[in-house]
C-alpha cells in the first residue's frame, strides 16, 4: 500500500473512531434516563442540534461521495435519534420539545429541498451545503462558551465532562487533519473552534480541579 493511501486510511479510521466515541458519551445519559425513569440533569437541545448536524453532514457526504462522512454521520444520527426518543418517552412535558424538534426538522427539510431541487449545479450545491454545515458546526462548538463563563464565575467544573472534552479534542483534531488532507475547507475550518474550546476546557479543569469542588461542597455542608 502506498504511503498516501496509508495516511488516508489512518485519518479516516481516526475520524470514525473518535467521532463515534464522542457520540457514545450520550450513552451515560441514556442509562441515567432508563434507570431513574426521568430526564433530570439531562439536556435535550444538544441531542437535537447534534442530530440535525449529523443529518446535514450526511447529505454533504452523500453529495461528495465521501464514505467516512456517510458512515460517521449515519451512525451519529441514529444514536442521537435514539437519545431523543428516550428523552421524549420519559419527559413529562413534551409539547415544547416536540415544537423544537418539528421546527428544526422543518428548517432542515426546507434546506435540503432548496439544495437538491433549487440548485441544479452539483458543484454549487456542494459549496452551499458545505457552507451551511460549516456554519452550523461552528455555532455548535461556540455555544458552550456561556457555560464556560459560568465555570469561571463559580470556579467549579462540575458542569463539564472531562471524557467529552477529550473525545471532542481528538475528534476535532482528526477532522481538521482529514479536511486538510482533502483540501476541503468546509471540513477543516469548522473543527478548529472545537480544538480551541477543548483546550479552554482542559485549562479550566487544571485551574479548578473537581476534587477542589468536592472539598468546597463539604465545607459548605
TrEMBL record:
GO cellular component terms attached to this protein's record: Golgi membrane; plasma membrane
Gene3D superfamilies, per database record: 1.20.1280.290
Membrane topology: Multi-pass membrane protein
Keyword Transmembrane: yes
Transmembrane segments annotated in the record for this chain: 6-23, 69-90, 97-117, 129-148, 160-180, 186-206
Family as reported in the entry's similarity comment: Belongs to the SWEET sugar transporter family.
Assembly with partners or alone: Interacts with TRPV2; the interaction probably occurs intracellularly and depends on TRPV2 N-glycosylation.
PANTHER family: RAG1-ACTIVATING PROTEIN 1, SUGAR TRANSPORTER SWEET1
Protein role: Mediates sugar transport across membranes.
Protein name: Sugar transporter SWEET
Organism: Orycteropus afer afer
Amino acid at each position: 500500500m502506498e504511503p498516501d493511501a496509508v495516511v488516508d486510511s489512518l485519518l479516516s479510521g481516526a475520524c470514525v473512531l473518535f467521532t463515534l466515541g464522542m457520540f457514545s458519551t450520550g450513552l451515560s445519559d441514556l442509562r441515567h434516563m432508563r434507570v431513574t425513569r426521568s430526564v433530570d440533569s439531562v439536556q435535550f437541545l444538544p441531542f437535537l442540534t447534534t442530530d440535525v448536524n449529523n443529518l446535514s453532514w450526511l447529505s454533504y457526504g452523500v453529495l461528495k461521495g465521501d464514505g467516512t462522512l456517510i458512515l460517521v454521520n449515519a451512525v451519529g444520527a441514529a444514536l442521537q435519534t435514539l437519545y431523543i426518543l428516550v428523552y421524549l418517552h420519559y419527559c413529562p412535558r413534551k409539547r415544547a420539545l416536540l415544537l423544537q424538534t418539528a421546527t428544526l426538522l422543518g428548517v432542515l427539510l426546507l434546506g435540503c429541498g432548496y439544495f437538491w431541487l433549487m440548485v441544479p449545479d452539483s458543484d454549487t450545491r456542494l459549496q452551499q451545503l458545505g457552507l451551511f454545515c460549516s456554519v452550523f458546526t461552528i455555532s455548535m462548538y461556540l455555544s458552550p462558551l456561556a457555560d464556560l463563563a459560568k465555570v469561571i464565575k463559580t470556579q467549579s467544573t462540575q458542569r463539564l465532562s472531562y471524557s467529552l472534552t477529550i473525545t471532542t479534542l481528538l475528534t476535532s483534531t482528526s477532522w481538521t487533519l482529514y479536511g486538510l488532507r482533502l483540501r476541503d475547507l468546509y471540513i477543516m475550518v469548522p473543527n478548529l473552534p472545537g480544538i480551541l474550546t477543548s483546550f479552554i476546557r482542559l485549562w479550566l479543569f487544571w485551574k479548578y480541579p473537581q476534587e477542589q469542588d468536592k472539598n468546597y461542597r463539604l465545607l459548605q455542608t
